[in-house]
């Protein structure tokens, strides 16, 4: 059965991040797997297929042939790319023509000089930014061409460089396989062509689903043609303990897949040698309302059934007897022939590489609803760091708004670089919000002097962030209040971390000192502080958590929090003496993924959200992951990650031309080699210059002797230093090596 997923969408739903992956768009069909770049963004998944035509490929100049043909070779066959484009919701490919006295499309009536060849070797006479049947470029549609008489900038035939570019997005015509350039036979004609990779987004097959509402509901399709080989795969989700998934009958022959019990899936068929049944038993219930994958295959040699990652069950076919599966009835999905049908959801049902359109059929069938709900029960675990899973009609997304992270799975730290003297203030109370609204929204609040009402306070706080710095002392984090209460995280003059609480009831603030560990060593460090009443738990980096307790006399309420500061404390009223000292010159370094209860102040500053009005910044905040601690994302080792692709073992002919999103490995290697060569040359030069200057040093010290009798300084040196000529020869030799 397939070891590769069907699409990038499927990899995203295994919690995979952007990378190169092998996909197999038609399961065990004839196409075979191909390697693509999957770019997982917050709300979309892009599949990218590259080709070998360099960007800005020059064409023309004095070739006797009238036409210049540029051929694009892709890292996949045309059929494989068609499988991707046909199941995608949207595809695009960038195309650009830079010209100097080289016309492009001529006029909408005339013969075009240049065209491109797409899928099925069809010629197309429209350009990027335009559409089929319109012989124009983007500027012709937007009416801003160089010469308004023409519909392309290049058609103006100027002696200066001009350009026509844009996206081709009619996916039935993609990909571009050739560009044929025609107007190059005049002196001074020049052109450059660029074609981007094919990028497709969405996978209509992966989410094509139907919900079966009653046990007598079914969808019917035309007879399944699987005489010598059958390959059936789908996902199901149910809370019922049994029901038929699908069935197709013949005279005596049949093929059937069903959920026999809460822990058993059965694949049965008869090709004329008597019925055969293969059963996969699951150690845990399959009616847990989570998605499960079923893959059933049958050919003349054997039959197999796999459910999720459970062991594959196989059965060899008899050596003699019938081999053809002869069916004539319709294919029923759900209740067939009075049997108890499947209750729940089936999606991405593929029969011999073709996805059945359950959704369209469900729209016109009573008892069956198009689409499915409840994807978060299966995929919610991929939303990390407190990200919330949000149901979508086709799939799910992670809402990272209440976290200090972003990215498709809320695992990308949001951080910034602080220059000396820079600071950020986050006001818990912003003008114009009612008290109650504020409390409910942030779990944090303040009693503004203007507001009458109960004084608000905190019994517990949760703080986590990572930082890196080389300068101490400094203030990393501080929360002020309308009372003398405060909380601070500091790096003291010796580079050690100190957590300081002042909640009242004690003469001095309560300090937690982490001695013997230099935190100002330029390395990223993570800090997690949780206080619940009197109990404080501190975790630093990967060290085990340590518990502390506020003194018995200390108050345990943090009264009326007012504002949160990063980098420096600028607050009116009396301020703690040490903190006042640490304030100058201020924090220099990086802070990342700062989160205090429900508030992510850095993210509010760097990503426009509804809380951005609370933020005030002094200086320029530059986004950077320099403070991101590597401990936040444990990387999977290549050995344990089944989807890890080793670039050496992956046979990928056109990996080099990775345009746009792709990580261009070949260029990286070449770049590395060039860097090493340049470095070596520089080292040699430094060595030579030092070598020459070493001799110069001796010339200068000897200059006084014999200088009077010599006509010039040079002569003085030569009179003085018998080794001088030898020195020149030696340095010449060095240069010639």
From TrEMBL:
Gene3D superfamilies given in the database record: 2.60.120.1000, 2.60.120.200, Laminin
Domain of life: Eukaryota
InterPro entries: ConA-like_dom_sf, EGF, Fibrinogen-like_C, Fibrinogen_a/b/g_C_dom, Laminin_G, Neurexin-like, Neurexin-related_CASP
Disulfide bonds: 345-372
Residue stretches making up the Laminin G domain: 208-372, 440-626
Ranges for domain EGF-like: 373-411
Keywords for this protein: Cell adhesion, Disulfide bond, EGF-like domain, Glycoprotein, Membrane, Repeat, Signal, Transmembrane, Transmembrane helix
NCBIfam families: GGGWT_bact
The protein's name in its UniProt record: CNTP2 protein
Lineage: Eukaryota, Metazoa, Chordata, Craniata, Vertebrata
């Amino acid at each position: 059965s397939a070891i590769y997923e069907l699409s990038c969408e499927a990899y995203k739903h295994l919690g995979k991040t952007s990378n190169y992956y092998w996909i197999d768009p038609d399961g065990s069909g004839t196409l075979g797997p191909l390697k693509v770049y999957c770019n997982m963004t917050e709300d979309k998944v892009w599949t990218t297929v590259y080709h070998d035509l360099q960007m800005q490929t020059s064409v023309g100049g004095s070739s006797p042939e009238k036409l210049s043909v540029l051929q694009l070779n892709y890292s996949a066959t045309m059929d494989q790319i068609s499988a991707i484009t046909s199941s995608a919701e949207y595809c695009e490919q960038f195309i650009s023509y830079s010209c100097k006295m080289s016309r492009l499309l001529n006029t909408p009536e005339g013969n075009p000089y240049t065209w491109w060849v797409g899928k099925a070797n069809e010629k197309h006479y429209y350009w990027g930014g335009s559409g089929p049947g319109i012989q124009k470029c983007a500027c012709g549609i937007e009416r801003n061409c160089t010469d308004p008489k023409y519909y392309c900038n290049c058609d103006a035939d100027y002696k200066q460089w001009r350009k026509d570019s844009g996206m081709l997005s009619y996916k039935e015509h993609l990909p571009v396989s050739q560009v044929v350039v025609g107007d190059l036979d005049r002196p001074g004609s020049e052109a450059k062509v660029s074609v981007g990779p094919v990028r497709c987004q969405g996978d209509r097959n992966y989410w094509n689903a139907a919900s079966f509402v009653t046990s007598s509901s079914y969808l019917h399709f035309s007879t399944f043609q699987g005489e010598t080989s059958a390959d059936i795969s789908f996902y199901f989700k149910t809370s019922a303990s049994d029901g038929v998934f699908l069935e197709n009958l013949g005279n005596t022959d049949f093929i059937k897949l069903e959920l026999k019990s809460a822990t058993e899936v059965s694949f049965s068929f008869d090709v004329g040698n008597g019925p055969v049944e293969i059963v996969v038993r699951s150690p845990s219930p399959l009616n847990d309302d989570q998605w499960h994958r079923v893959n059933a295959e049958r050919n003349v040699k054997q039959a197999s059934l796999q459910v999720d990652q459970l062991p594959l069950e196989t059965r060899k076919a008899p050596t003699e007897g019938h081999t053809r599966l002869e069916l004539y009835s319709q294919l029923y999905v759900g209740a067939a022939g009075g049997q108890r049908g499947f209750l729940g959801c089936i999606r991405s049902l593929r029969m011999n590489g073709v996805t059945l359109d359950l959704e369209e059929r469900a729209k016109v069938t009573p008892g069956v609803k198009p689409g499915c709900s409840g994807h978060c029960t299966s995929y919610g675990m991929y939303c990390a760091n407190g990200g919330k899973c949000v149901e979508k009609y086709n799939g799910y997304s992670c809402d990272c708004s209440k976290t200090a992270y972003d990215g498709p799975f809320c695992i990308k730290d949001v951080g910034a670089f602080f220059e000396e003297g820079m600071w950020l203030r986050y006001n818990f109370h912003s003008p114009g919000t009612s008290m109650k609204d504020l409390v409910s929204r942030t779990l944090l609040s303040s009693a503004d002097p203007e507001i009458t009402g109960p004084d608000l306070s905190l019994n517990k706080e949760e703080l986590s962030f990572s930082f890196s710095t080389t300068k101490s002392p400094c203030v990393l984090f501080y929360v002020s209040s309308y009372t003398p209460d405060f909380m601070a995280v500091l790096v003291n003059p010796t580079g050690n971390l100190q957590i300081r609480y002042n909640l009242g009831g004690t003469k001095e603030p309560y300090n937690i000192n982490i001695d013997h560990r230099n935190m100002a060593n330029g390395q990223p460090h993570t800090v997690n502080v949780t206080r619940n009443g009197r109990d404080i738990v501190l975790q630093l980096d990967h060290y085990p958590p340590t518990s502390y307790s506020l003194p018995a006399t200390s108050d345990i309420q943090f009264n009326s929090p007012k504002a949160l500061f990063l980098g420096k404390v600028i607050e009116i009223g009396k301020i703690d003496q040490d903190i006042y000292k640490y304030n100058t010159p201020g924090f220099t370094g990086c802070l990342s993924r700062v989160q205090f209860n429900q508030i992510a102040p850095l993210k509010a500053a760097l990503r426009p959200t509804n809380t951005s009005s609370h933020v005030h910044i002094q200086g320029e905040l530059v986004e950077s992951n320099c403070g991101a601690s590597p401990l936040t994302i444990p990387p999977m080792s290549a050995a344990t990650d089944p989807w890890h692709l080793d670039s050496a073992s992956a046979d990928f002919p056109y990996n080099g031309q990775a345009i746009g999103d792709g990580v261009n490995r070949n260029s990286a290697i070449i770049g590395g080699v060039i860097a090493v060569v340049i470095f070596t040359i520089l080292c040699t030069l430094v060595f030579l210059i030092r070598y020459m200057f070493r001799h110069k040093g001796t010339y200068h010290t000897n200059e006084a002797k014999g200088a009077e009798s010599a006509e010039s300084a040079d002569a003085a040196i030569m009179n003085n230093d018998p080794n001088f000529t030898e020195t020149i020869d030696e340095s010449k030799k060095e240069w010639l090596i």
